[in-house]
Write a structure and sequence with these properties.
Order of helices and strands: HEHEEEEEEEHHHHHHEE
CATH architecture of the largest domain: Orthogonal Bundle
Radius of gyration: 20 Å
Distance between the termini: 35 Å
Oligomer: single chain
Strand content: 15-25%
């Protein structure tokens, strides 16, 4: 599933391609949304907002389209009405004179008026968005030390969109690594140093991923490894997807584990089960 940085980058691409110009047509695959095709034809996309892993396309007539890619959704930007050869099903499309924005395979799509957006069932339950400037280290510290969240294991907590939104599988592993914190610890088990690392990492890692096309590893190290000929999957992350490979810090083989049916990765030396004091 795409995480917050990927959704925000997709929104950036869409805005660059189709925003602030009249649409020539809008398409919805779902019958109950068909009446909105006519209402949106000839209108312009005013902005594309992201809420963690969800996207809201705002048109200039106060109509908004909520979409969530879930596991298989994919946005494509193409020349106007140029459809790619694919077996995916087109769910939502915005056409302008020059470009088309095409959403394939996503099933979670809704049309809302602007004042309804904050009350959407997904959006209204979200915690602070790690990519938004209004989310600060103080915000994260308040969340992680609250009675609501401090007793939950970090491996689960970092995927809870009510805690912080926009974090998913790869960001979870990377945040825990830079904080030198074992995934099964709870915030209440952690030292002040680890809490500080978690707070900083929860902001810095997603924002670096957004700014550097998914790279969460040390940027200088990633650049050196790339220059040495390593594939992107080998230099992109500190630990995620690197099972049995040596830790970049200490050389210990990275471990893969499963929690709630989802994989995570950690270094048993850099992230010991007992908290650092």
């Amino acid at each position: 599933m795409p995480e917050g940085p990927e959704i925000r980058r997709a929104a950036d691409r869409l805005e660059k391609a189709i925003a602030h110009q009249p649409t020539t047509a809008v398409f919805f695959a779902f019958e109950h949304l068909k009446p909105f095709e006519e209402k949106l034809a000839g209108r312009a996309v005013a902005a594309i907002e992201t809420f963690g892993k969800a996207m809201v396309t705002r048109f200039d007539n106060e109509i908004c389209v909520y979409s969530h890619n879930q596991l298989y959704g994919l946005w494509m930007v193409r020349s106007a009405h140029d459809y790619p050869p694919t077996k995916r099903q087109l769910r939502f499309a915005i056409h302008t004179g020059k470009k088309s924005a095409l959403l394939y395979s996503a099933s979670d799509i809704a049309v809302l008026y602007a004042d309804e957006v904050p009350h959407h069932p997904f959006i209204r339950n979200l915690g602070p968005d790690v990519l938004k400037p209004t989310t600060t280290e103080a915000t994260v510290l308040e969340q992680i030390t609250s009675t609501r969240f401090r007793r939950k294991s970090l491996s689960s907590l970092l995927l809870d969109q009510r805690f912080l939104c926009g974090i998913g599988n790869y960001l979870r592993s990377e945040i825990l690594f830079v904080a030198r914190t074992h995934p099964t610890l709870r915030p209440m088990d952690c030292s002040e140093v680890q809490i500080e690392g978690l707070v900083k990492g929860a902001i810095a890692i997603p924002r670096q991923s957004y700014q550097h096309n998914g790279i969460t590893n040390d940027l200088a190290l990633a650049a050196r490894l790339k220059a040495e000929g390593l594939a992107r999957r080998e230099y992109r992350h500190w630990v995620f997807g690197r099972e049995t490979q040596p830790c970049y810090i200490c050389g210990t083989p990275i471990i893969k584990a499963i929690s709630g049916g989802r994989r995570y990765y950690y270094c048993p030396t850099c992230q010991p089960l007992s908290p650092h004091r």
